[in-house]
Design goal:
about 280 residues; Rossmann fold; 2 domains; ten-stranded mixed beta sheet; two-stranded antiparallel sheet; 12 strands; about 40% helix
Length: about 280
């Protein structure tokens, strides 16, 4: 059951679509929406003589705080008209990474929403950082919303990217509130040459039986990769079947403080025409 949704405003153009999607989800699931407006303050260096920070730096902080308050006020005005339960949070990032603060806020929600980073866009780096932090630090599923996507809540048809891995299993479980409200669900296993045919069929059969016990009408589908791309095969099936949502495991690992995404996760994140619910 979805009762709490969270959305950080990143300052990127995709925020508007993500906010509209979060409002639609809150309305469709009768859930509460918390929107975070972040004031990202530049860090002041310590003065070796104990003097206070430069007046220009303090003035910049006050200017950024005022802008954050104005943005929060605009968000409140927008949300007041939507007929949902909502709140706008205003927080500051000074010594901490703002994406890390967003991940902390997301821990008190059922689903975190964020704008999806379009490939090659100048804001894609910032949006990737927010997505990485939410996916790997919040312990919550993350709904990545492309800039021009239209969200249906609840979605009537869902495509699940399935392979028997820990990440895919987590995503499947986190997506149960969406699936139980949907009319149909396609569990899509993109097959390669690995394994015997009987083993590949068993992969789909086991998960189909599990979801059927939840009262979900499941169609288990096997698809070959398109142009050696698992993500492209999933996206083509989603478009052809009229899906409104894709569910996928979020794959990646850390090296120092850099989060690295797996190929399928990265391609879905950047190229999907639909909202994608990721879980790690």
């Amino acid at each position: 059951m979805i009762k709490d949704l969270f959305l950080p405003m990143t300052g990127a153009p995709g925020d508007d679509a993500a906010l509209a999607a979060a409002v639609q989800l809150a309305s469709g699931f009768n859930a509460h929406l918390a929107v975070l407006e972040m004031v990202n303050l530049p860090l002041t260096l310590a003065n070796p003589w104990g003097f206070p920070p430069e007046p220009s730096v303090l003035a910049l902080h006050e200017e950024l705080r005022k802008a954050g308050q104005q943005n929060a006020s605009r968000l409140r005005t927008y949300l007041e008209k939507e007929g949902i339960s909502w709140e706008v949070r205003l927080d500051e990032a000074l010594a901490e990474d703002p994406t890390h603060i967003a991940a902390l806020h997301a821990r008190f929600s059922d689903v975190a929403c964020v704008a999806a980073p379009p490939q090659g866009d100048r804001d894609s780096g910032l949006l990737r950082e927010y997505f990485h932090a939410l996916l790997f630090e919040s312990g919550r599923p993350v709904l990545a919303v492309p800039a021009h996507a239209v969200v249906q809540a609840p979605p009537s048809h869902i495509v699940i990217a399935w392979h028997p891995t820990e990440e895919a299993s987590r995503a499947l479980n986190d997506a149960l509130p969406f699936m139980t409200a949907a009319t149909t669900v396609d569990v899509v296993h993109v097959t390669g040459n690995e394994g015997k045919r009987e083993e590949r069929e068993r992969i789909g059969l086991d998960i189909g039986i599990h979801l059927a016990r939840h009262g979900i009408e499941v169609n288990v589908v096997s698809r070959p990769p398109v142009a050696e791309s698992v993500a492209l095969s999933l996206l083509r099936h989603a478009r052809a079947s009229g899906a409104q949502l894709i569910v996928a495991g979020g794959y990646g690992h850390s090296r120092a403080r850099e989060w690295l995404l797996g190929g399928v996760t990265r391609e879905l994140l950047h190229t999907s025409h639909l909202p994608v619910l990721f879980a790690h």
